[in-house]
Structure formats: C-alpha cells, structure tokens
C-alpha cells in the first residue's frame, strides 16, 4: 500500500506536468484534459488502455519532470490515435514499434526537433524514424508496420534455415520501444482492427477525433500565442480531414455568384509581344466572386466550444470552396450582436476572435443590419446556430435572403432557407 501523502504527491506531479504542457505544448495539454490517471502495481513502467494512463509508482519516482512530460505526451497520443484498438492480427511487437515511431516523430516535430523531447535519460533516445529513414510523421502506424515487417522477412530469408512467424499473433506485447529502450508497456492494448470496433469503441474513436480537432483548432485557429511548440504533423493532416465543411457552399451560394470580367489590363502585358517596345493590354480571366455575405455565429450559452468550432469551420469552408473569392463579414450573437468584421481571405478570417456567451435572440441580428448597414446591405444572411430561441417575423429580414444553418434535427425555423450540419459527439 502507498501512504496517502505519497499518493497526493503523485497527483500533484501529474497535475503540474499537465499544466506545464498546457503552457509549453498546448496541443498535448488540451488532450490530457480528457485523460484519467491510475497507479498500477503490475506494470513496470507506463501504459495506456485508450482511456486511462497508468504508471508504476517506482517508474514515476525515477522520472524527472521533463521525462514525465514526454511520457504523458507519448501516452496521450496513443490514446488520441486509438492505437490501442488497431493491432488486429498484426505482430504485436512490430506494431508497437511502428506506433511508437509515429508518436515520437510527431512529438519531436512539435518541439522543433529537440531530441531531448523524446529522450528518457535512463532509457536512451526514442525511435522516431521509419525504416526508410524518413520521419515517422509522414506515415500511419500501419504503413510503418509494413516496412518493419518487410525488413524482418528479408532478414529471415538471409538466415539459413530461418522461419518467420511475424504474421502470427504472439510475441511480447510489453515494454516495447524497439531499440530506444524498454519503458512503454503496451500490454493493455486490445486486438481490435479498424472496421471491427464494437459500438463503444467506435464512440470512443469519434470522441478522440473530436478532441484532436478541437485541440488543434484551439492552438491554430484561436491563436494560443502563449503556447510554444506546434501542432503535430499528423494532427494537421487529420484536422484537414476532420474539419472539412459538411455544407456544399457552391450550391447554396450559386444564386449570389457574381462574374467580374476586366476586358483589358496593362498589367501584366501580353507575353505574345514581349519583344515590342510597347506595353500591350492583355485579356484577363473571368473572376467568380461572392460579395457581401454576412455570417453570424451563435455564441450563446447553449452552444458548446465544439459547436462554435464546427460553425467556424463551415465559414472557413465557404471561403476555401470559393478559393478566397468570397468577401463578407463575420459576427457573433447571443442576446446582443458583436459587430461583424469584414474578411476577404483566410488570414483576415482567422484574425476574427469569438465573442459572446449569454442568452439567445435572433432579432438583434436584423436590427443591427437595419440600423448599422442601411447603405451596404448584405446579399445574404447566414445564421449558424442551434436554433434554441424565438424566431422573429420574416418581415424583419428586410427582404434579404436568410439561411439558417442548424446543428441539429430538432429545430425548424418557420421561414428562410434551412440547411443542417451534424453536431460532434458529446463526451
């Protein structure tokens, strides 16, 4: 048994480590907010089962603060990538090494290539390169596994009378870090394979996907300027997939497309007459643009951070789909309106900060448009909301088309065009 004061010391160290990471590596710190911790007297080092992070008391006593930070980053990345559920029929030893290479490579990149960030003093430098010599973050764990398996099979063929059992289950699952040291215990991992997860496992996977997305956006989109380090490469790759807008904005906004053609321009000159002493005009292509779109995001108390992030991603998605040829304004509302800010490209959009948090009222949106924008009325008003508020009379819209983009199936506005996006799974 461990004395209560010793237990409190372990808790204190874990909390302090998480606080350090929130400050120095915010992406990992935010992920760790979803992790639970346990002491385990059976394992010799550290482990995770996808829900909890386990520590041997003796192992934790041996870790410096910086080493503890790395262990937590390493384990929470296994959780976030649900490595614990992806072994399937693969050789556990090789798959464990593959997962560690991917995780360590991303941690190294997040710490600007500082090798100390993936090193335990008593165990040596951790592996971060795939067998082809490239950084592990370029690949999935499965891709690195296939390289490792191919190397193993080549070695077997070169050994007289050797036999390979790499395709069989078995081999030690425990304490695998390949050549980097024996400290990371994968013994709590399951044999599930992608596509064969049960209902609970699929829900857990969806939760971690949302957590990855939200953590990456919190660091990148919301400009956590006090955080050092960067979002891991794999998270950037996943975030692009996970935050892909659900709305076909080209179809929705097709009515509002404007084609602008500039017939002649002296810049650039027509290249067909490059040897001429005269600058001759050239024809420019047609520009398809959308002008004067007003986006209003609901930031009332009923809208969680995840729902607001989802709405924000849709606005960015509209900009992306029109290749930054969309000029508009983005504002926020609860019981009042935060004045909209113009944007014309990704940089100006991402500089607009979220505001709000009170009750919900749609009427102030239309009052603001009427009173503050009479000389430059929007071509369309797009309201991203959960819809939980009384709807004003349609006459308030001043004849401007209104799109209600709702994150649920429960609310149906009495007027205006309606589109729906799927809300993230709640914890």
Describe the structure.
By secondary structure, the chain is α/β, with parallel strands linked by helices. It has helices at residues 4-24, 26-32, 57-62, 65-80, 92-110, 141-158, 199-220, 233-242, 249-252, 305-321, 346-350, 363-372; strands spanning 36-39, 46-48, 52-55, 119-120, 124-125, 184-185, 257-260, 287-298, 326-333, 337-343, 380-385, 402-406, 417-420. The strands form 3 sheets. Strands 7, 8, 9, 10, 11, 12 and 13 form a 7-stranded mixed beta sheet that branches. The protein has a 4-stranded mixed beta sheet with strand order 1-3-2-6. A hairpin with a 3-residue loop joins strand 4 (119-120) and strand 5. The radius of gyration is 27 Å and the shape is elongated. The two termini are 33 Å apart.
Helices and strands, with pairings:
Blueprint: H1 4-24, H2 26-32, E1 36-39, E2 46-48, E3 52-55, H3 57-62, H4 65-80, H5 92-110, E4 119-120, E5 124-125, H6 141-158, E6 184-185, H7 199-220, H8 233-242, H9 249-252, E7 257-260, E8 287-298, H10 305-321, E9 326-333, E10 337-343, H11 346-350, H12 363-372, E11 380-385, E12 402-406, E13 417-420
């Amino acid at each position: 048994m461990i004395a209560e004061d010793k237990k409190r010391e372990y808790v204190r160290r874990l909390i302090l480590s998480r606080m350090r990471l929130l400050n120095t590596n915010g992406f990992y710190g935010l992920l760790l907010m979803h992790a639970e911790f346990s002491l385990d007297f059976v394992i010799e080092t550290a482990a995770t089962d996808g829900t909890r992070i386990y520590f041997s008391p003796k192992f934790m006593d041996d870790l410096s603060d910086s080493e503890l930070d790395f262990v937590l980053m390493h384990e929470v990345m296994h959780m976030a990538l649900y490595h614990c559920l992806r072994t399937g029929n693969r050789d556990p030893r090789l798959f464990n090494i593959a997962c560690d290479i991917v995780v360590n490579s991303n941690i190294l990149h997040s710490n600007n290539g500082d090798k100390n960030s993936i090193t335990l003093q008593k165990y040596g430098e951790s592996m971060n390169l795939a067998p082809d010599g490239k950084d592990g973050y370029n690949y999935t764990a499965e891709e690195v596994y296939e390289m490792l398996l191919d190397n193993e099979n080549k070695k077997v063929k070169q050994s007289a009378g050797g036999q390979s059992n790499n395709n069989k289950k078995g081999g030690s699952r425990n304490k695998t870090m390949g050549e980097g040291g024996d400290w990371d215990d994968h013994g709590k991992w399951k044999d599930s394979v992608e596509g064969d997860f049960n209902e609970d496992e699929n829900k857990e996977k969806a939760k971690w996907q949302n957590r990855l997305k939200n953590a990456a956006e919190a660091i990148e989109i919301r400009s956590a300027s006090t955080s050092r380090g960067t979002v891991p490469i794999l998270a950037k790759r996943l975030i692009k997939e996970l935050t892909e807008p659900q709305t076909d904005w080209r179809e929705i906004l097709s009515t509002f497309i404007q084609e602008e053609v500039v017939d002649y321009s002296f810049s650039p000159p027509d290249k067909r007459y490059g040897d001429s002493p005269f600058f001759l005009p050239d024809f420019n292509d047609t520009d398809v643009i959308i002008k004067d779109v007003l986006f209003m995001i609901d930031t009332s108390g009923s809208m969680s951070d995840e729902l607001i992030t989802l709405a924000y991603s849709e606005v960015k998605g509209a900009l992306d789909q029109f290749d930054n040829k969309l000029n508009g304004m983005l504002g926020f509302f609860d019981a009042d309106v935060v004045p909209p800010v113009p944007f014309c490209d990704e940089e100006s959009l991402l500089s607009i900060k979220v505001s709000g948090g009170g009750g919900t009222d749609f009427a102030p949106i239309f009052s603001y448009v009427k009173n503050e924008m009479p000389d430059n009325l929007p071509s369309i008003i797009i309201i991203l909301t959960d819809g939980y508020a009384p709807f004003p009379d349609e006459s308030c819209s001043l004849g401007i088309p209104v799109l209600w983009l709702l994150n649920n199936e429960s609310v149906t506005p009495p007027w205006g065009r309606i589109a729906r996006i799927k809300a993230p799974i709640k914890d």
